[in-house]
Each structure stands twice: as structure tokens, then as C-alpha cells.
Amino acid sequence: MNIGIEMNRFKNFNWNFLIWGILLVLIVGRWVNGCSDQRKEYAVNTHKWDKLLLVLNQIEKNYVDSINYKEIVEKTLPMVMENLDPHSVYLPPQELEVAEESLEGNFSGIGVQFNVPNDTAIIISVIPGGPSERVGILSGDRIVKVNGKTVAGVKVNQDSLVKMLKGPQGTKVKIDVKRNELDELVPFTITRDKIPVKSLDVAFMINDSLGYMKLSKFTRTSYQEFVKAVEDLKSQGLEELIFDLRDNTGGYLDQALLLSNEFLSEGELIVYMEGNHRKRQDFFADGRGVLQDIPLYVLINENSASSSEIFAGAIQDNDRGTIVGRRSFGKGLVQEPIYFTDKSGIRLTVARFYTPTGRCIQKPYSDDYQYDIWERYKHGEMIVADSIKKNDSLRFVTPKGKAVYGGGGIIPDVFVPLDTTGVTDFLIAVNRKSLQVKFSNELADRYRARLRAVKSFADLERLVESIDLETEFLEYARQNNVTPGPGQWKESRDIVLTQIKGLFGRYSVLDDNGFYPYMLRIDNVIEKVEDLTRSGDENGEENGEESEASNPTASYIKNEYE
């Protein structure tokens, strides 16, 4: 890795010493400012660092040039963390701020969702009650200027635009938008405010008794969102629940504990943690969960990690529900955030977590650790359950006698392969050009007034069915030099049209509630769960805002991440 110094001038200099030397400087600094106990501890361990102290002393006395200590520290600390484990990381101030926002459940901004299908940002939805709604921003508006700077047609990337729109609460930003029916730009001055970021993407009833929830991450607000959604679904007749954790990479540990607690009986172990400097801690259900008897199906895939795996492992090891999908990521480590006065910080792995049967599901560290998912594709694991590697020495048994395995993720009870049905050269070409997204944008522009009148999913379906999507899209694709070969449209038709319907529905006030009900219609994992519910096989094994005082579970290690 290039650390920003002309390495050719110092061929004989061992930069690994500098890396660990900088780490030592941090340790020494903490010792100097610490209490007598810290000094004693340091004195006991000084001999471990003697060589590094010697190297630092020689650099300080003899190095040919002046040293920019701050720059070297900032560029070297990530290398220090890389020598620990794949999930211990150093976060500079800006990166830490972004990471914290995504987990805290709010940030300061203008309150819109947008995408950039071509070279102009189009507002998909306006967050109800947010700053943009208060000034009159509408779905479908094109953002042309931000604070007088043109951002349309000039290849401004989405991340840069997000940075321009976000800012401290109470500050103002001026945007000029192009509104379809008007020739001139419409100016707005928006006062930034705190914007809630939901982690529960959607919750609705698939049929009269089967509910569906999708959680995208475990944030500070996940449990509150979940409780509210459960109340709503119960009022609609909830009897069985699909809890979708696919592509959920984790978040706060306490939220995983709170959610698990809703489904488990009093005294059942949720998870335990242990590390070299952390004594074993067990976390049990308190028996006050409101969903202890409801049939549960937990969906996971190769991108379900960390807190998702804690939840899935607790459900699986207690024989509480059915895990459906593909093997999870395999992250069994607990990160603790440590903050520094310059607003940077680290997330340091301090313990491993273990599922109730005693499994550590952390996959082995290896040179190709970051390519593990690709290796699964190569070895056929995404298609055939028998290709999943199982270590018999890490075999455990649940109370009801079901075999479960450690050493690399949660293996589902019911395996569902990656769905390749309907994949043709035509579909691949359409995806490469994002024609479904671009077409749905144009469609939303044409039907903007009717979209804004949509109040329910039934309203949306009536609108969608009044449009000849098939004819219009095929013509749109032809205009973009994409045409289906013999039989390809018949094979890919349902996928393409369903995607368009969902993307179009997102432009309505329903937002994700206009998107997911369509997309689940072409989801083979949902299809499998519906088969299980019809057969009544809840545990079918094919393959292997409450206060902390009123809810003890809420007091679990609030400052730890998964």
C-alpha cells in the first residue's frame, strides 16, 4: 500500500517498525495521560515494546527529513488494523460520521430519496414531514442546481450530490428543480433538519394470515420500528411471519438481542460472547416477547452477516423457527467502537459470539477472505445444497436433535438455490443498460398526477393494469438497441415487467410498499416459504420504545457493534 512517501529514497527502511511504532506512540500517550494503574500496567509490559521504542528513538534523532506525523499516522493506522482481523478498522472523522449516521437511524439533510438513471438526479420520494415536503418538493422533480452550481448534465456522481445536500441541522441549501409541466426552473430554499432513516424497509401482509418484514440493518431504531410494525400486522390478522434478513450486514448487537427476545421463551439463551480480555457473557430471553408462539421463517443469504447471524442462530439453535435461503456470510466477531478526540475512531474486535449450542460461526481467515462469496459461486454452493462445506468436528445438536454446524456461517434448514429462471441474453442486456429503471422513470413522468392520487396498493395495481407495459417497453428497448432473440421475451417477460411495476410503484406515496409486493412475486425464496406454510411444516428441515428500566433486554451492551 502506498503510504504517501517517496519509498525509493528509503529502500532500507523497515516501514513495519514505523507502523507498530505509531501504535506504540498512541499507547505511550495514553499511559502519560492515564492513572497510576495504567502506568503500572505499562511498566510491566514495557519489555514487549523495547525494540519499537528503539526504532522510534532512532527515527526521531536521525531521520534525514522532517516528518509530517499527522499525515503518516492517518495513512498508517489502516495498515495497523489490517494486521489484526478483517473486521477491525480505523475510521477517519468523515468515514466515522457516515458510518455512525447509518446506524444511529437519522442524519441531517433535506429529506428526499433520489436516483440518477442518466445524468440528472430524479426525486423518487419525499419523506413525509421532512424539510423538502414542507417547502413543496415533489416526487419526479429533477435537481438541476444546488446552491447555484449546476449538477444536471455534468456527470456529478451520486455520492458528491448527497454530500452537497446533507449538512448540519438548521443550515440552508438552495436547490433549483425542473418540474415536468413548467418551462422555467423552480427555486426552493430548504432548511436542513434531522431525517429519520428507517431500517425496516417494509412490513405488509402477503395474504390474510402471512406477514412479511424486511430489515435492512440493525440500527438504534430497529426494535422500535419492529414493535410498531408488529402491532400493525396483528391488526390485519397476522398468524405467521416471514422475517427477511437477506443482505442485512448487521449493526448494533443490542437490537439483535431485543428482536430475538420477542420470539424466545424465558430463560432461552440468545447468544454468548467471550474474548481474551472479555469474560464470558450470556444473554437470555426474558419471556416477555409478544411473538413467542407465532410460526416464524427467517430468510438469509450469503450477505446476511453479524447481528443477522446472531438472530438466525438464536432462532435455529432453540428450534424456534425455520431458516430459509442460503448459507450466511460467517462473521462471528464483536466489534467495540472506540472514539478519539479528533472525531476519528476504531472498531476493534473484542470478542467472538457463540450461538446457543456453542457454535462460533466465524469463517476462517484466509488470503482470499474477501473473495469467499465468489468462491461459493465457483464451487456450486449457490445452486446445490450438497456443495456446502460442513466441518464434522464443529457439529452441534439442538434440543430437538437437529444437526447444526459452526465454522462458517448459518446453514439454512431449508436451502433455496440462486434463481436463474428467466435469465436470457436479452435480460442481461436490459440490466446492463438499466432500461427497467430508465423506463419506469419516463413512465412515472407521464402518469405523475395519477401516481400522486394513489392511496393503496389496490389503487396502484389498477393504475398499472391500465398501461400496456409490454408493448411500450419492447418499443423502448428497441429504441435503445436491445431486442430479444427467439423465445427470449417469453422466458424473461415476467421478470422484466414485474421489475418495472415495482420501480414504477416506488414513485407513488407507497414508496417501498409499492415496490416489494411486486418483487416478491418473482422471489423463489418467498415461493418456497409459501409452500412450507401450505404444508404446515413450520420446522421442515430439508438441509440441514420501551425504557431500559422496563425492559432488561434493552440494557445489553448498547455500545457494541456486530
Write the layout of secondary structure elements.
Blueprint: H1 15-32, H2 36-45, H3 50-62, H4 69-82, E1 89-91, H5 93-104, E2 106-109, E3 112-115, E4 121-126, H6 131-135, E5 142-146, E6 149-150, H7 158-165, E7 172-178, E8 186-191, E9 193-196, E10 200-205, E11 210-215, H8 222-235, E12 240-244, H9 253-261, E13 269-275, E14 278-284, E15 296-300, H10 307-317, E16 322-325, E17 333-339, E18 345-354, H11 372-378, E19 395-397, E20 403-405, E21 414-415, H12 425-432, H13 435-446, H14 448-452, H15 457-465, H16 469-479, H17 488-505, H18 516-519, H19 524-535
Parallel strand pairs: 11-12, 12-15, 15-16, 16-21
Antiparallel strand pairs: 1-18, 2-9, 3-4, 4-5, 5-6, 5-7, 7-8, 10-11, 13-14, 13-18, 17-18, 19-20
CATH architecture of the largest domain: Alpha-Beta Complex
What is the number of helices?
Answer: 19
Helix content: 25-40%
Form type: globular
